[in-house]
Each structure stands twice: as C-alpha cells, then as structure tokens.
Request: fold
Amino acid sequence: MSTLLAALKTERGRHVAGAVFMAGLSASFLFCGYEFIRSPAESIFIEQFGAGAKPYAIACVPFMMAAMIYGYGLLLSRFGAKRAMAASMLGSAAFFFLAWLGLGYAGRWLVFLLLVFKESYVVIISEQYWSFINSVLKDEEGKVFNGPVAGFGALGSLTGGYLLGRFAVLLGTEIFVGLAAAAILPAVILFWVAYNNAGEPKPAESEAGGRKGHLHLSILAENRTVLFIAFIIFSAQVVATALDFRWTLMVQDYMPQTDARTAYFGNFWMQVNIFSFSMQFLLTPLLLRYIPRRGILTAIPAVHIITCLLLFIYPSLGVASAALLLFKGLDYSIFRASKETLYIPFSYDTRYRAKQVADAFTYRFAKGLTATWISGLKAAGSVAPNFYPALGLVFSTAWFVMSFPLTAKSRTAEGG
Reply:
C-alpha cells in the first residue's frame, strides 16, 4: 500500500478512506472557522491592549488548557470519544456566538478572554481528529493518508484566510467572530458521520471509563516515544512563540489601523496555508514514502535554526514573515503527518488521553511559559528585539538534538 491510488483499490483502503476523508472534510470547516477567529481576535486585542500586552494573555493559556483538557477527559470517560468530540465542538461554537453578541457591551475583559480561548480550543479539537485517524489507520496507511487528510484542514484554512482578507475591511472585523461559531456546526456533523462510518474506537477493558485516570498521565513516564514528543513539542512552540511575538510587534509598527491589519493577518495566514496545502498534497506523501522519519524529523528544526539566525542578522518584517511562514507551513504539513504515525501502534489512552497532554497541553504550555518569561523580562526592563530570534535559535537547536533519540525509538519500532 505504497500510494494513495493503490490503497483505494483494496476494500479496506476504500473503507478507511471514506472515514478519514470525511474527518478531513470536517476539519476543513473547523479550520476555516479558526481563520475567522484567529486574526480578528488578534487585531481586536491589539486595538484594546496593544501588541506588547499579548504575552500577558498568552501566559494565561495553560490554565485554560488544563481546565479544558481535564473536562474533555471527564467527557471521554463518561460518554466516549464521539460524544466528547461533539460536546467540545458545540461548546466552542456557543462561546464564540456569545462573544460576538457581547463584544460591544462586555468590555475589555471579554477581548482578553477571547484571545485566550481561541488559543486553547483549536489545539484540543485538532488533536481529537488525529486521535480518531490514528485509531482507524495502520502504520503504512498513515504514511499514505496523513498528508492528503491534513490537506483538507489546510484547504479550510486557505478558504477562511482568503475570505477574511477579502471581506474584513468591507464587513468589519467583529462579524467574523460570529462566523467562526457558524463554521463549527457543519464540522460537528461531518465528524459524527466519520465516527459512524469507521465505528467508534473502544478502549481495552483495563482503560475503559478512565480507570487509569481521566488523563492517564503515567503514560508519559512509561512511554519513551510520547515523552520525547512532549519535549520536542515544547521546544518547537518556544520557537513559534518567539517568532510570533517578533512578527506581531513588527506588524503593529507597520499597520496601525485595525481593519487593514486584520486583512494583512488574513492574507498572511492564507499564504501559510497555500504553502501547507501544497506540501500536504504534493510533497508530504512522497517524503513519507521515500525518506525515513529520522531524516524528516531532524531536517525540520535544522531549517528553523537557519531562519532564526537570518532574522537575528537581518531584522525586517519580510524576514520575520518568512520565518514564521516556514515554521507554520512545515508544522501543519510534514511535521504533523510524520509525527502522528508514531502514535498509531499505541493504546487507546495513549491516543486519546496522553496525546492531549503531550501534544495539546505542551503545545500551549510552552507558549504560555515563554510569554510569562518575556512578560517578566519586560516588567523588569525592556526586551531587545534580537532576543526573540536568539531564543528561537537556542530552542531550535535543542529540538534538533532531541529528534535523534525520538527517531531512534521509532526506528526500533519499525524494525529498521
């Protein structure tokens, strides 16, 4: 089963494709909605607080993530993966709808909360897609399907970014908060259908009903692969946060008007998603087929070492944009598709519970911790502009080093 076309010629391949591509179509609506909320929430926050206050909001994200992931774990134990998914997605839609109604009345605290929530919900829900896909696919199938399936998410992001860039000035920024809520509704329906087509994954008797904990944190100590994934996600998100903060400060300097800034944000993320979409459908399946995971997972941080060094030497909006675009484009495509295949052999609790901690919580915890550190440095004095790419350079190097023990473990699991 080395190619997508070969997979679709088998009965199992067609059955699997129907389920995972339905999930991918669902993800396209979810990520379209995320584009509707990502840039508006950022732009409204900058208008109310200024870009310099963003680290204070990001520092609050781990607390919201911890509460939301534990709540998801409770739902998973009581109702199973399908109903937990529906509850988390519908709850997010309700929040955005109420936030849209209250933006003109609730005051600045709602703007602050909106930024914190938009940083949290999408990571938790996106990991649920991968938990489902990793439960449906076998290892070789993951190498075939992961890229194209992730491409549907990129297509949704691409569409959302295009619409935002095209209509933000015409319609105004705030309306897109309500549209983010509306986009989640078809995503819930399609994901429900995907679960029905594939059958809801069930835990082993020893893990049923959350018997080993609603988060089953002991897996992080027991499973070396998952532990190294958590370390790498942490390092990667420190790099992402450093690049993001530097880029946001530059955008604020160049574009002081809210709607124009929102349109710029939308167009930038559309370019990120064009790059990611191209990678997922054109290059990712080929790279996963012909290049060992070690080659892929070590080359990615090497790229970021170079871009952080360039931003340090040549600080400009163009270089900052290119560095962030490369990070996000690679993160959404080849890094995600290759990393997710590591989860396929593991247990239900590893895929559905520990994954939320290792991937989702660590993803935002790293960002929040970095923001807290930067906030403390700013409170004590000023932060030099070159601090951000220097921080990215240090953690890109740490990421590169940790990729070797991670892939040594995966090579053993593959028998190669």
Remarks:
- The radius of gyration is 20 Å.
- The CA atoms of residues 301 and 327 lie 9 Å apart.
